[in-house]
Amino acid sequence: SLEYSGESVKYSDLSHLFSNPTTLNNTKTVLFIAEVLGYFLRPFVDFTMTLEDQLLSLCTYSFLITIIYQKNKLDFMGGALLADSQAIVKNIVFTTARLQVTAPDALYFIIQEGTDREEGLFGEVRTMDHDPNPDTIGVCHKAALATKVHSIHEQHPSLNPGHTRLKSTTAVDHTNPYSWNPNVIVSDVHLPTIYFRAKANATSLITDQFGASFIDFDAFETQLLNGTIDHLRPGGFLVGSRDCNVDVDDIDQELSESEPPTTSDTPDITTSGLHTTVANEDGDINSELDCVNAYPSPNNDHDNLDPTNFKSPSDISITDPFRSLNVIHPTDGLNAAAEAESGEWEYTDSSYQSLNSPHTSNLKEDLVGSLNPPQKESQGPNLRQYIIEDDGKLIRKDVYIARKLASTASAQKVSSRPLRNQGITKAELLLRQGRGAGGVINDDNLSESSDPQIKAFNLGALLAFCDGRIILLIGEILNFRVGSAKQNVFCISQSLLPDAQANVTVAIKILNLQYCETVDQWIWDGDYMPVQAPRPDGSLSKDHCCIRIHSTNFSVLESPRLASTSSGDATWAFPSRILQDVMQDLWLDLSPETDDFLSQSRQPSPSKSHRIAQ
After folding, report:
1. Which of 85, 147, 536, 601 is the most exposed place for a label (fewest CB within 10 A)?
2. Where in 490-588 does DSSP place strands (E)?
3. Are 367 and 294 in contact (CB under 8 A)?
4. Could you give the number of structural domains in the chain?
């Protein structure tokens, strides 16, 4: 992995490797991310770098992350990784400055920073014998012996063999200071020069990748100089923290002006409002569940990181302050199907009742603005702790677990920790079923099926209503969803797309096309059209360029043409004649002669619209 991380970023010219413009564009993005992370990784593994080179690389990484945060916030890098990596860089820089004052001639090996002592102690404990599962007393004995061993090595360094790798890509022990031959004397480093060189390097990399308009670099430098932001506070505050003196009612103007409710206005949540619930021998709930929970647990949906998981397809539109662009829906039945996915639970048995009952909804509305909600102990037992939903039925957790454990195959968890934490079994992974199917092609009979398949990254077209006109948009497929399923699939049968009963939705990104008059073609410039306005501070959200529509509104383009950009890279080209034919076909599919056409293209409410940045 070290060898690959060092070599992959050297492929700056990828045109001869990828003929598909979409693959080429995605590969360049991945290589940019690898280069950003390489500035942090390389100083710890490249034993040919001097201390000055190491600090320059780390500071460049710090600037890159800070600049990207201004635009993408935590959508690019999570708060834990951002804060930890920036703290590591800060510690190394400050330690260098401290040693320049206290010990100018000291040799500073940055690989010795961090939790090396704790990790070394853990390594001794883990490798002391062959028992992988010791008890508490055994761990205590091992830790005591490992501490004594480390104490002896500190007193007698000649007895310490150090960390020796059995095999490495460069046959060098990166954790051993004797492997670092370059100059690492702290007095030979000039920190101000390194810092401003790192800022220039980061600005150049960002400009080459995203353009000079990515952020306002002058305003960014001004904020750094006056202390408004820094690398640990890229947004003016520590990542993952907030001012404890600021409450919700201090931020929300409507809540701040409302009066606190009196005691009589506060709902009384007691066990008297809890109906007795009886489960049959199968564990299914066969009587009314009216359990009120004033502190509902957050939705633990595993797919909440999907950048396309935002608006309902029936609510999709694109508008800006001067124009209105709405996706046209050819069938009204799809809108009803989309409303069925709004979050309310539906059960086949009339005795089942959604936990989002009107009584619960009214209770939540009554509690808005209450600074003194009822205490938890007054709400009675919370049945949500013991009941889960399985295939549209409410069932006790103990019965559900017993059923899963009854089958040997279903009880076997996968070895991957992220999938195992989601409860995904080997059977679900092999059959491409269950919650773990998201991100996996779900068609098991792909090779045997004679029906043409539509895959992710294919291109298609859709119609939209913009400023009184019908226009054509070209989109790149990200994934599909079938029916009410929560998981994404990356391959689907072409026959399902025009089928309204299948209720297939498509997540796409709109290509930003430029018209070339000399050849009468529309050329993709490698960028995507934003479908949502930036935040007030200018940052972008995860769904900034993503939109999800019904497949009946989408037509797949067959065999798009290739063209070359000014830099020699391959890109997509769409002749105007072909786009006119596609637009005519999509228009006829809408049946514009019928009376239902106007209702199908109705304007959505402004609160549910997406804005497009011009």
Report:
1. 536
2. 491-493, 504-516, 521-528, 547-550, 555-556, 561-564, 570-575
3. yes
4. 1
DSSP helix/strand/coil, 537? coil
Residue 49 within any structural domain of the chain: yes
Is residue 190 in a domain? yes
Written as one letter, the residue type at 327 is V
Instruction: Convert the pLDDT of each residue in 579-608 to its tens digit.
Output: 988 888 888 887 777 766 665 554 443 333
If phi > 0 it is left, if psi is from -120 to 50 it is alpha, else beta; for residue 165 that is beta
Paired residues of 509 in beta bridges: 476
Measured CA to CA, the distance from residue 552 to residue 547 in angstroms comes to 15
Q: Do the domain assignments include residue 12?
A: yes
Look-up of token digits 């710890």: 44
| Phi, psi (rounded to 5 degrees) for 388 | -130, 170
Contact 449, 461 (CB under 8 A): no
SS3 285: strand
Domain that includes residue 191, residue range: 2-109+180-225
With vertex at residue 246, the alpha carbon angle to CA 244 and CA 252, rounded to the nearest 5 degrees, is 150
pLDDT digits (tens, 9 = 90+) for 91-138: 999 999 999 999 999 999 998 887 667 777 888 888 888 887 888 888
pLDDT at 40 over 90: yes
CB neighbours of 28 closer than 8 A, spacing ≥ 6?
A: 14
Distance between CA 169 and CA 189 in Å, rounded? 30
* Backbone φ, ψ for residue 252 (5° rounding): -80, 115
Question: Tell me, what amino acid is at 60?
Answer: T
Of residues 464, 465, 488, 484, the one with CA closest to residue 474? 464
**Is residue 72's pLDDT more than 70?**
yes
Phi, psi dihedrals of residue 283, rounded to the nearest 5°: 90, 0
Tell whether 87 is covered by a domain. yes
Residue 208 has pLDDT above 60, yes or no: yes
Kindly tell me if the per-residue pLDDT of 39 is higher than 90: yes
Q: 445 and 456 in contact (C-beta within 8 Å)? A: no
Distance from C-alpha of 208 to C-alpha of 215, rounded to nearest angstrom? 13
| CB burial string 41-71: b at 16+ within 10 A, e below | bbbbbbbebbbbbbbbbbbbbbbbbbbbbbb
416, 435, 461: which is closest to 556 by C-alpha?
461
In this structure, the strands spanning 324-327 and 317-319 are antiparallel
Pairing of strands 317-319, 610-611: parallel
Residue (of 406, 387, 354, 403) closest to 279 by Cα position: 387
Answer for the pair 449, 466: CB distance below 8 angstroms, yes or no: no
403 neighbors 390 (Cβ within 8 angstroms): no
pLDDT tens readout for residues 449-479: 567 888 888 899 988 877 778 889 999 999 9
- Decide: pTM greater than 0.85: no
* Helix (H), strand (E) at residue 131: none
Q: Is the pLDDT of residue 294 over 60?
A: no
